[in-house]
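cron nightly-structures :: item 1 of 1
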Amino acid sequence: MSVILLLQGCAVYYKSPITLEQAAEQQLPVKVHFRDDETVKFRYILQEDGVFYGTTKKSGEWSKTLLDAQSVENTFGKNKSASTWVTIGVIGVPVVFLVIFIADAVATASLLDASF
């Protein structure tokens, strides 16, 4: 369960902002900065009849949040490839070092047992 949470927890967003129109076209996770210093992450941006909504999923239920384009300061799209590499680095590298450490400890212990 912990590994699943760790794998889903790493998200990297592009540094250059995109418009709400671009975010709606891309249908990728986004991070929206509002003018009141609030930041909200949405699964994707939906555009219906010229009105933008941020979509989220909580407890298996989808919900839409109306986005006032005037209150949105910046929108950043998720960088999928960087997110994947960060996840691999954060989880994969420590696991590899742990396996090497355990293998070295086992090999050292068996050499010590063999010498006595």
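cron nightly-structures :: done
The two ends are 42 Å apart (CA to CA).
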